[in-house]
Design goal:
two-stranded antiparallel sheet; AP5Z1; AP-5 complex subunit zeta-1; disordered C terminus; mainly alpha; TPR_AP5Z1_N
Amino acid sequence: MYSAGTESLIKQAREIQDEELQKFYVRVSKMLSSKEHCSETIDSLQRLKLIVSATKYARLLPAEVQNKLQTLLRSPGCPEQLRLLCSAVLSESLPPSVRSLSAGLTQDCRSLGSVAAIVLAQVAINSIVILKCYCIGGFSAISTMNMLINYCCFFLFKDQINLVNRKLVDWLRYASVHQGASLSSGGFFTGPRSRQPGPMTEVDGVVVGDFFTVLCVGQSYTEDQWMNMYAFSMLRKWLLTYDSEGTCNTESDDRSEVDSSVMSMVSATSSSSRLLPPKERLREKSFEYCQRLIEQSDRKAIKRTDTELQKVCLIEAVAVMDIICKEDSSYVYRAFPCLKALYGRLSGDLAFARALMPIAQFYLNHSEMAAVDSEAVFRHLLSRFPSEMFNEPLLAFEFVQFCRLNMAVLQERVPLYRQSFPNIFKFLAWNSPALIADYMELLPSLMCRETAVEILHTLLDLPCLAATLDLQQKSATFQAADRVLWDNGTKLANCLEAFRQPSCRGLFLYILRPEADLPELVCVCVCVCVFSQFTDKKLSNQLALVVLERSSQLYRISKFKSELLRVFSAHIRTLCKLHPSLLIDQSRELLDFAGSVSNISSKKELYTSVVWMIGEYLSVSYDKRCTVELITSFFESLEAVLLEITQVRQSTKPPNYHPRVLTVLMTTLSKLASRSQDLIPRLSLSLSKMRTFAQSAPVASCYSEEDIEEIITRASELVNLLKLPNVAQFVLAPSPHGDNPRWHKDTNTSLPHSMRAVSGLLHKNSSFLPG
């Protein structure tokens, strides 16, 4: 919301009459003609900016005003405030003509940038003006280059693209190898004088030959050297924007792969590479530039900052070579010898870990074509990086992005990828807040039928893994003989001693293991949708056991346990729906879990889900192995629980169990009794006592009136339903195929007969109605 004053000014600008506006244009034109521009000129331009921008439709400025604004904008001596105002007014008005806007352009950086900004602000982006700014050169060409890539990529034609390619080649390959002229202090009377420019040097102090790159060092730089560095910084983006598959391809990009290969080999052996088409020549010179950078990175830098620059340049150089090899596959054979030597040099130094990431990407993209063994590269990437550099946030991010971008290829061609999930999870354990979303996307790619429960255990043990990684880091920092107490006190010292104890070493080594423990273990994910993709009967049984086992072994972290129990309760229901037979296969474990009253208090949601599963799926309709004896066993176990939690003693306060637990228990017992009708009398007796239980004074003090009503109503409904055992079996235990859409139409099925039977009984004996 604008203030009242601002709203008033905008309203005046919108409602200005044409006669008054023309008078204002004349006054502005006179002010712009003056050689001296006072504060009144600035105020008038500000008002003009408000007028042309306050309406929905752009205004057409008078030609005289427009020309004077453009003249002032292009003037080298124009104050910056006036230049910005002129640019803002022209940007908001109807587009000026291309010729008038680009006429008289000079190499003044500010003028070129302002003109390009005006063109970009217009509705119809005109790349011709921007290219003219670009070709004039100077430092403004860099910002213009960014504009070309970001805004004009769909407006450039073949000739314009070739023009940019030629300029990039000139800047990359033919920059001067001598330092820029610098001023030295002369005598008192002679003043400063220029020194003779000396040669550029390598990072180790050796004089540069005939090839300047961003890794060449000097006291001052010439303009073409700055352009060389700027051009390389934007080279990757330009190649990605105009690759051989892009919409703005040059004519050379339509050749067959064989012709492209021949052209590349000619360019590699011929000294007349100037005969190549612009796009191929840019590839060739870019490739040479990257090879030169890789060679320079092997030099011992004198300054530490140059060492860091070497690492950054290596990352960029390998990435550019990867793009070139994707465009022209013949470069793959020229690149691999260089990159294999580079990997051999860097693999032993973890300080260059980030530089190894693009090398791994190159191997992943091209090793199969070149028949190069890449196993050692990926073993190094998946083993040493997470194990030894888990505490490097930037490397962790780049590692996870690499895995995300190449999930399908890694699954198919790198067998070690899935086996290395214990190592990969170390990045998540140490940097979890920043990487959780990425790992949720990455997790399905790590899953298969050969690694299962171990991943679920690993996910649940992430707090333990993070603590162990912290101990590992501290243990490497402090010697075993140190007896000082650190910031966390004696507890930390004791933990470090335990980490070093031989008796505990095996446990810590297992937690820090780099690969999956055993190949026959199965992999699991916490996402239900992923479960349903590949879970079979055996896997479901294992997962159900893990859920029951780990529900009692969760870390007491705020909200961690409750959230995991919520996830467990939802997923175990999904597993049982997919494979109801797990109730038979894991009957002993489920009996023990459901028969323990303590699970109601500590795992309410999970306990309720397990009891519901028993009532829903423990039936011969789902598994022919379901016997009366098994149903009776579950019934007696749950009956004992219900009796225990509803037993009211006057001397003690009754446990305050959630009413949903009671209603689910009563419903499940009724379902089981309907499948073994000998149990109905026992259950009816127990349910008849629920009204007394719910209305007792101790219980009434713990439950609300709505809760008490819910318990009494459910018990009453079930008692009345069990009076008709056959009807109860039909209602409480419908067929697993009851959702078939033909049930309401097919008269040969049992549902219509059952409905007619129920209707007849209710009409003959209304005493059977619930109530």
